[in-house]
Write a structure and sequence with these properties.
The structure is a single chain. The chain is built from 13 helices and no strands. By secondary structure, the chain is mainly alpha-helical. It has a domain of 197 residues: MetI-like fold (Orthogonal Bundle), CATH 1.10.3720. The longest helix has 32 residues.
């Protein structure tokens, strides 16, 4: 009689997949988690050019929130973030809805809208720096057409400079959001549209009350991608304004870079980067709880 084969232990199942994931797990734990804890630890010290263990408590954070440059950078990030989030989602969805109508040359239009995303932020920033330059950009072109009093110089106006940077960010990122939304729309069952037409439901109501709720995972994916780009916005600012005029277009990522590599004040840079991490965590934890906690309760 053949011996009964013993079942394999649970930890031995899918061993090839587990072995393949070891490098990624190691990278996440050592580089991401380890470096994050290292940064938080030294944010409570008075590290300058090199890290040291001279603890100063919350002095770096107190100094941070008393610095006008940091406050301006946070205000700019909030303005840029809210506007970028809303406009990218709205514009991306509208473009996707138009392309979803099976128009002619759809592939061409999709390539045109997506092309800016293939450019680096530095290139995008330089291009829009030229376009928004009052001497040879939009303002110069309109004045040559006869409107000599026309003024459009957002990158040189401290009150609206962040919106000039926002224009470049929307131009580059909306194409990717459009493609994500278009993929979501193509996944909607055509029978839903047929039923809506039979019932006489207007198209805009079908989008608003039927299609958009069904695309919740798509919107979450787009939201995460946009949010990650907002928090780390740096290249556009450096390429377009270098933080100017004055400090009017400063953002947290540039503040961190300048403190760590130009001012050689590691403690202050670590404190600022820790606050950036905290802002992400404050948003991420409630979202994760609502997203996954609600499913478990259901």
């Amino acid at each position: 009689m053949a011996a009964t084969q013993q079942p394999r232990p649970a930890w031995l199942k899918n061993m090839s997949a587990k072995l393949a994931s070891i490098p990624m797990v190691f990278t996440a734990l050592v580089i991401f988690v380890g470096c994050t804890l290292w940064t938080v630890y030294y944010s409570f010290t008075n590290s300058k050019l090199l890290p040291n263990s001279n603890f100063v408590g919350l002095d770096q954070y107190t100094r941070l929130w008393e610095t006008n440059r940091w406050l301006v950078s946070v205000e700019n990030l909030v303005i840029y973030g809210v506007c970028s989030l809303i406009l990218s989602l709205v514009l991306g969805f509208l473009l996707a809805a138009l392309l979803d109508q099976k128009i002619r040359f759809e592939n061409t239009f999709r390539s045109i809208f997506l092309y800016p995303f293939a450019l680096s932020f530095i290139v995008t920033g330089l291009v829009w720096q030229w376009i928004l330059n009052p001497e040879y950009g939009v303002q110069h072109l309109v004045r040559q057409l006869g409107w000599t009093s026309f003024t459009f110089d957002p990158l040189y106006n401290a009150d609206i400079v962040i919106y000039g940077i926002l224009i470049a960010g929307i131009w580059q990122g909306s194409g990717l959001i459009m493609c994500i939304m278009l993929a979501g729309l193509r996944g909607i069952d055509s029978e839903i549209w047929k039923a809506a037409r039979v019932d006489g439901i207007p198209t805009w109501k079908t989008y608003l009350w039927v299609v958009i709720p069904m695309m919740k995972p798509v919107f979450i994916t787009a939201l995460v991608l946009i949010a990650s780009g907002i928090v780390k916005v740096y290249d556009l600012v450096v390429a377009q304004t270098s933080g100017g005029p004055g400090i009017a277009s400063e953002v947290p990522a540039k503040y961190v870079y300048d403190k760590m590599f130009q001012a050689q004040n590691l403690g202050q840079g670590f404190a600022a980067s820790t606050m950036m991490l905290l802002s992400v965590v404050v948003i991420l934890i409630p979202w994760a709880y609502l997203q996954f906690g609600g499913k478990r309760r259901g």
